[in-house]
Amino acid sequence: MRMKPSRNFLLGLCSMLALGFLYYSSGRISLRGWGHKSLYDKQGFFLKLDGTLPLELMYKYGNLSEGACKPGFAAAKMTAIYPKFTKLAPMFLDPNYKRFAKIGDYLPPFGVKLQEKIIDILLSATKSYGLGEEIDSMSCKTCIIVGNGGILANKSLGQRIDDFDVVVRLNEAPVKGFEKDVGSKTTIRITYPEGAIQKTERYEAESLFVLSAFKALDLKWLRYMVFNQRLRSTDGFWKSVARHVPREPSDIRILNPYFIQEASFKLIGLPHNNGQMGRGNIPTLGAVAITMALHNCDEVAVAGFGYNMSTPHAPLHYYEKIRMSAIKESWTHNISKEKEFLVKLVKAGVIQDWTGGICGAGC
């Protein structure tokens, strides 16, 4: 008996669907592989990074005069290459910091869990939570993060660095005596106890002192500094620490730990380690500062970043004679993965690298 054509068609269709299901279930094909996923790397960045502005950004910024600050430029370009980016995190902790659930779920350095009491005490003493009225009121601000690399030496970038609205310096990197290359302006200096300037006379006349807390002990240390109390013990620190910070409480800030969390787990892709500090999952302070700037600055530049391990006799830092060969494998940082992240930002034009140390000739 011959089957009706419609019945033949239905049986054939069912067979095709069954075979298709088995083929798909076996993992030999992936619908995602045909679309969204193939355009991005595992961190969520576009694989194609050529610095080309999306059409909507070309229209938005194309008519601005040369040299004019571009409002929202860094965040717009970051979102264009990393769609998961959201500009939501303020630079410093303020009395409303508990509204950010993402930092409440983690211990330092990735959050504030179990540290709320001491943070509340510190914030009630400092009473200031921004960059200052003049800078905070700007509709568009440019920022530069000045790294400590020896690549800064003899570049004569000092004046150009000082032209930025916000100049960010890291740890104890000196200014005095190096103004020609690194500038003389410091808006904020981000550090932790072991990295802070220890000789009070080396501090700038004016700047904000910003703590990046990598452990609970760092916040306890800051309490001594804020209240100008004598530090009785340095147990628990991995090297000597500053015992006095010549700043008024109103000039002291606590860096939002969200930037450490985002840089580590999302942007660089370091091990999560159940949300705790562990081997190779702490970004460098430079990467943290860049992440902070992407959220809070309209244009972002860097200088003094990048280590060239092919030149072992080159100076490691601009202010001392230690050579590049002194770099050893870091227990906490993953320099190679961090460089991959920074190269993406430079290639896509999200940040400008004035000393060219991040990519070398590779961008």
From TrEMBL:
Catalytic activity, as annotated: a beta-D-galactosyl-(1->4)-N-acetyl-beta-D-glucosaminyl derivative + CMP-N-acetyl-beta-neuraminate = an N-acetyl-alpha-neuraminyl-(2->3)-beta-D-galactosyl-(1->4)-N-acetyl-beta-D-glucosaminyl derivative + CMP + H(+)
Compartments (UniProt record): Golgi apparatus membrane; Golgi apparatus, Golgi stack membrane
Catalytic activity, EC: 2.4.3.6
Major localization class: Golgi
One Pfam family of this chain: Glyco_transf_29
Keywords for this protein: Disulfide bond, Glycoprotein, Glycosyltransferase, Golgi apparatus, Membrane, Signal-anchor, Transferase, Transmembrane, Transmembrane helix
GO molecular function terms attached to this record: N-acetyllactosaminide alpha-2,3-sialyltransferase activity
SS bonds (residue pairs): C143-C297
Record's keyword annotation contains Amino-acid biosynthesis: no
Membrane topology classification: Single-pass type II membrane protein
Keyword Glycosyltransferase: yes
GO CC terms, sorted: Golgi cisterna membrane; Golgi membrane
Annotated pathway: Protein modification; protein glycosylation
Entry-linked PANTHER family: CMP-N-ACETYLNEURAMINATE-BETA-1,4-GALACTOSIDE ALPHA-2,3-SIALYLTRANSFERASE (PTHR13713:SF37), SIALYLTRANSFERASE (PTHR13713)
Function: Catalyzes the formation of the NeuAc-alpha-2,3-Gal-beta-1,4-GlcNAc-, NeuAc-alpha-2,3-Gal-beta-1,3-GlcNAc- and NeuAc-alpha-2,3-Gal-beta-1,3-GalNAc- sequences found in terminal carbohydrate groups of glycoproteins and glycolipids. The highest activity is toward Gal-beta-1,3-GlcNAc and the lowest toward Gal-beta-1,3-GalNAc.
Family per similarity comment: Belongs to the glycosyltransferase 29 family.
Full protein name: CMP-N-acetylneuraminate-beta-1,4-galactoside alpha-2,3-sialyltransferase
